[in-house]
Amino acid sequence: MASAWYIVLTTYHGARGVEPRFLDVARSFGASRAAVFWKVLLPALYPYLITGARIGLVHAIRAMVVAEMYVIVGYGGLVHKTGLNTSTAPLLGLLITLMVVSMGANTGLYVAGRRLAPWYERVGRRA
Q: How far is it, in rounded angstroms, from Cα 18 to Cα 107?
């Protein structure tokens, strides 16, 4: 739930930015509404979906760790218990591990976005 709004809002703003001439060309060639969605709109929204997923992933990981800290289970519970000790080295190690996992997941989504859609990189440069 922590990431749903990031994905929805990013996709919504991406849909508003789709050039109307692309939709008009598809309609002028007799494309149905479903064909316009699958062939024009979805490929245009793909970069925004990946961007929303990348932003949402970071917030989902943060929400997961914070929720686990409240109930003292999982990784968040481990961070909470380690934070109660006077030694800060284990806590720093846990936080660095969390940062590396988050950056790895974010990079994985970026690479998947570039591999699945070659036009993904061009949208970022246009903005």
A: 26
Dihedral through CA 6, CA 122, CA 46, CA 116, nearest 10? -120
pTM, full prediction:
0.77
Please state, as a whole number, how many other Cβ atoms lie within 10 Å of the Cβ of residue 94. 18
d(CA 114, CA 98): 24
Q: What is the pLDDT along the chain (127 residues), one digit of tens a residue?
A: 888 999 999 999 988 988 899 999 999 999 999 999 999 999 888 888 988 999 999 899 999 999 998 998 888 999 999 989 888 899 999 999 999 999 999 999 989 888 887 776 665 555 4
